[in-house]
């Protein structure tokens, strides 16, 4: 009996110690990694948004902020009728890794206000939302937020998957679940469990899909061994699908009387001699840009801007003091470069 009682007491001590340890780690995680809890989007503008208001990050960059009532990272309030530009994108536009007043949306809004244009920018960037997800949600986003002038979409890839394009074209893409009910939902309320989940994903290389994208993610290495005729056929099928895809996006934007602007952010590679380059294939970029032009979609390629900034200032658009240089999310300088380029592009479109 004494032995059994001793085991029970020991187990209780372990349980209490575990609870205390998780509590202490959760307090730390609350400031180190507090992305929060996803909730299914009621509007369909994104697959999900954030349930929590406060967010903070210390594992990649250092930042904290307050989400708006819709669950998006906006540092200012903007009435629906004041939305002129709707910004859609991935975790780069969600911008949890930089202070709120250093994000693309905030900086672009600031430039619009101080330039006298007066266009209000509303950001619905959300982690994990690739170009395909944003494309699929475009019509719902336009219906929900009714921008008056522009809808801006980020893409990390210009060589798109034929299968993913088909899912968007046929409306068969499966939305990413938010896990806003059940056991997983309640586990997310413990900050340390969220950090632990993130660390496991990092160890298994299961990062944010929008970060894993690159320009050659859909190209098959077997293509090089095919005959010339086969390559021509593959290119023909791809170009046809790409044009169908862009036509769909253009029609949806036109239906809401807004101009669609797509901007491309390539991955950066650091060479052994200290120079930098971009991963993007020039031919793929040209084909993507051509498909955009065919349907009146404005296209902005950040490749040259990123490289020129490095040549002049030796600054990389990705990476932080606590992460690998040139990898991961946009840093402060990256957000500034994108915001300035988008502003210049809109000024060019409007002839100003």
Concise synopsis of the structure shown:
This protein is an alpha/beta fold. It contains 12 helices and 12 strands. The strands form 4 sheets. It has a 5-stranded parallel sheet, with helices on both faces. It has a 3-stranded antiparallel sheet with strand order 1-4-5. Strands 2-3 form a two-stranded antiparallel sheet.
List the helices and strands and how they pair.
Layout: H1 2-32, E1 33-34, E2 38-40, E3 48-50, E4 54-57, E5 63-66, E6 83-88, H2 91-94, H3 104-114, E7 120-123, H4 131-145, E8 150-155, H5 162-170, H6 182-188, H7 191-203, H8 209-212, H9 228-255, E9 259-264, E10 268-270, E11 276-278, H10 282-294, E12 298-301, H11 303-313, H12 332-349
Parallel strand pairs: 6-7, 6-8, 8-9, 9-12
Antiparallel strand pairs: 1-4, 2-3, 4-5, 10-11
Helical amount among residues, as a percent range?
A: 40-55%
**Could you say which structural class the secondary elements and strand pairing correspond to?**
alpha/beta
Order of helices and strands: HEEEEEEHHEHEHHHHHEEEHEHH
Radius of gyration: 22 Å
Biggest sheet overview:
5 strands, parallel
Percent in strands: 5-15%
Tertiary shape: globular
Number of helices: 12
- Poorly predicted tracts of residues: 214-228
Mean pLDDT across all residues, rounded? 89
State the separation between the terminal residues, measured CA to CA: 87 Å
Strand order across the biggest sheet? Answer: 7-6-8-9-12
What is the number of strand segments? 12
């Amino acid at each position: 009996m004494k032995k059994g009682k001793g085991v029970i007491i020991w187990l209780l001590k372990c349980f209490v110690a575990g609870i205390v340890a998780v509590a202490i780690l959760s307090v730390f995680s609350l400031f180190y990694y507090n992305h929060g809890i996803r909730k299914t989007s009621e509007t369909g503008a994104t697959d999900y948004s954030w349930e929590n208001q406060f967010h903070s990050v210390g594992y990649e960059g250092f930042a904290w902020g307050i989400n708006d009532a819709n669950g998006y990272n906006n540092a200012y309030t903007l009435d629906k009728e004041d939305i002129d530009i709707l910004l859609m994108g991935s975790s780069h536009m969600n911008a949890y890794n930089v202070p709120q007043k250093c994000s693309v949306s905030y900086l672009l809004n600031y430039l619009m206000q101080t330039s006298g244009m007066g266009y209000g920018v509303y950001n619905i960037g959300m982690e994990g939302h690739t170009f395909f997800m944003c494309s699929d949600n475009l019509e719902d986003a336009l219906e929900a937020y009714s921008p008056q002038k522009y809808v801006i979409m980020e893409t990390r890839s210009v060589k798109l998957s034929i299968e993913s394009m088909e899912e968007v074209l046929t409306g068969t893409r499966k939305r990413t679940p938010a896990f806003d009910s059940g056991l997983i939902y309640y586990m997310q309320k413990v900050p340390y469990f969220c950090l632990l989940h993130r660390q496991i994903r990092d160890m298994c290389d299961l990062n944010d899909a929008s970060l894993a994208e690159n320009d050659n993610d859909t190209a098959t290495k077997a293509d090089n061994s095919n005959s010339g005729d086969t390559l021509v056929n593959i290119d023909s099928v791809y170009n046809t699908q790409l044009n169908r895809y862009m036509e769909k996006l253009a029609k949806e934007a036109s239906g809401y009387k807004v101009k669609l602007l797509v901007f491309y952010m390539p991955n950066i590679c650091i060479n052994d001699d200290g120079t930098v380059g971009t991963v993007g294939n020039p031919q793929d970029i040209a084909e993507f840009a051509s498909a955009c032009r065919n349907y009146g979609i404005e296209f902005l390629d950040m490749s040259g801007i990123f490289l020129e900034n490095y040549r002049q200032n030796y600054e990389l658009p990705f990476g932080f003091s606590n992460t690998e240089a040139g990898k991961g999310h946009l840093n402060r300088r990256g957000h500034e470069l994108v915001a300035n380029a988008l502003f210049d592009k809109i000024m060019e479109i409007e002839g100003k």
